[in-house]
Write a structure and sequence with these properties.
single chain; 33% helix; alpha+beta; 8-stranded antiparallel beta sheet; 5 helices
């Protein structure tokens, strides 16, 4: 007679382990940010902006962080809806969700950066990975390549959210790269503050 096969862990036990893992990960993130130089800046309501200089064929990128006075579960529905998220952003003249299938969106944008540059029109594909990440990349329109993400990081024991915006942009040969990235970097604090305002007004 064969020995009895070991019992598989129940669905609820597996779910419990996953939840514990998420909590531990969130606590580790909180600890790392509490020890970072950025944390005091974010607590003051300011925006942290960094630019990664490209080398060789690497696409240059910029990244911004801001502290939202809402928990990630309240922030996520706004971040996952680009029409609502960008509703108060002056540079974004138009944003429209063209289609959504499951967690994949196709979104059209019309963006005006500065009088020295044209209005940029492009379509992004956004892939939603609830409850913490929205990744996007260019499908068509202006620029040679666009990549990036929105990331939600729990803070203050999950009562607040550090919102991270990362953008890699290759404008192609017709637009001066340094001018465009400089305009984007200069405007990121305003954009992140408008996003924060939108989230906090719509997530009570």
């Amino acid at each position: 007679m064969l020995p009895p096969s070991p019992k598989r862990p129940s669905f609820w036990l597996t779910k419990l382990f996953l939840c514990v893992g998420v909590v531990i990960a969130a606590q580790l993130v909180n600890t790392s940010f509490a020890d970072s130089a950025e944390w005091p800046l974010l607590q003051q309501g300011k925006v942290s902006v960094r630019q990664n200089i490209s080398s060789g064929n690497t696409i240059p990128s910029v990244e911004a962080k801001i502290l939202i006075n809402r928990s990630p579960d309240k922030v996520w529905p706004i971040v996952a809806n680009p029409e609502k998220l960008m509703s108060q952003e002056d540079k974004v003249k138009k944003v429209k969700i063209l289609s959504q299938t499951g967690n994949t969106q196709q979104v059209a944008f019309s963006v005006f950066m500065t009088k020295l540059l044209p209005t940029f029109n492009y379509i992004l594909e956004q892939n939603l990975s609830p409850p913490y990440v929205v990744r996007f990349h260019r499908l068509s329109g202006s620029f040679r390549d666009i990549q990036g993400f929105w990331r939600l990081i729990p803070a203050d024991n999950g009562q607040k959210t550090i919102l991270v915006y990362n953008l890699k942009l290759d404008p192609g040969p017709l637009v001066p790269r340094s001018m465009l990235l400089g305009a984007i970097k200069a405007d990121l604090p305003n954009m992140m503050q408008s996003v924060k305002k939108t989230i906090e007004l719509n997530s009570n």
